[in-house]
């Protein structure tokens, strides 16, 4: 049936949980585009016949044209929803995405993510004077300025504003400024220890 593969693309995204990016369905997109090409070519042939006086083809032409429009809407909805999810991942994980998420992105989506990352960084540098303003910090209002964190992975040396260097080794605990830790918490290097 016409449009079934396009609708399946959208249903697959709808089934995925919020914040989860399913693998890019290159085969699905290719199949939908091939179906659209076949429908278009059939319509072109029938339009040429209809011009010569065969009016019983008009309904079939309209039906295929509606199928083309529906397929186009489904593909655009699929791609747009994926871009919204990728944009949300930038705010959640920062400028470096985990490899498992990057694996689910197409080359074009990775390029779009890099351009979005650069645009956001340029905008944040233009705010707040020399240092800029990091809009990705404090996604939730902080209750305290310092938090206790546990290191989940060996990360190496970490410098805070007063010039103190801290060695982040696996299973070590530290009392650090919240704003310096948020990015590392999102990347899975640190975890917030709740007392």
Structure commentary:
It is built from 6 helices and 5 strands, in the order αααααββββαβ. The protein has helices at residues 4-15, 26-51, 58-93, 99-103, 107-126, 178-186; strands at 146-151, 156-159, 165-168, 173-177, 190-192. The strands form 2 sheets. A 3-stranded antiparallel sheet has the order 4-1-5, covered by helices on one side. It has a two-stranded antiparallel sheet with strand order 2-3. Strand 2 and strand 3 (165-168) form a beta hairpin. Helix 1 packs antiparallel against helix 2 (26-51), helix 1 (4-15) runs parallel beside helix 3 (58-93) and helix 2 packs antiparallel against helix 3.
Along the chain, the helix and strand elements come as HHHHHEEEEHE
| Rg from alpha-carbon coordinates | 25 Å
- Low-confidence stretches are none
Spatial strand arrangement across the major sheet: 4-1-5
H/I helix tally? 6
Derived from helix and strand composition plus strand pairing, the structural class reads mainly alpha
Report the end-to-end length measured between terminal Cα atoms: 58 Å
Beta-strand residue percentage: 5-15%
């Amino acid at each position: 049936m016409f449009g079934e593969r396009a609708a399946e693309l959208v249903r697959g995204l709808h089934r995925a949980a919020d914040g989860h990016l399913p693998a890019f369905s290159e085969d699905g997109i290719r199949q939908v585009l091939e179906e659209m090409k076949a429908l278009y070519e059939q319509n072109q042939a029938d339009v040429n016949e209809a011009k010569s006086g065969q009016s019983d083809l008009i309904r079939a032409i309209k039906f295929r044209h509606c199928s083309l429009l529906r397929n186009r809407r489904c593909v655009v909805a699929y791609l747009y929803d994926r871009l919204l999810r990728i944009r949300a991942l930038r705010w959640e994980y920062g400028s470096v995405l985990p490899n498992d998420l990057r694996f689910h992105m197409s080359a074009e989506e990775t390029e779009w993510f890099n351009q979005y990352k650069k645009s956001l960084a340029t905008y944040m540098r233009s705010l707040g004077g020399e240092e800029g303003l990091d809009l990705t910090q404090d996604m939730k209002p902080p209750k305290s300025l310092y938090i206790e964190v546990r290191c989940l992975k060996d990360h190496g040396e970490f410098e805070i504003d007063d010039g103190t260097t801290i060695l982040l080794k696996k299973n070590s605990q530290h009392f650090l400024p919240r704003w310096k830790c948020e990015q590392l918490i999102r990347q899975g290097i640190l975890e917030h220890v709740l007392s």
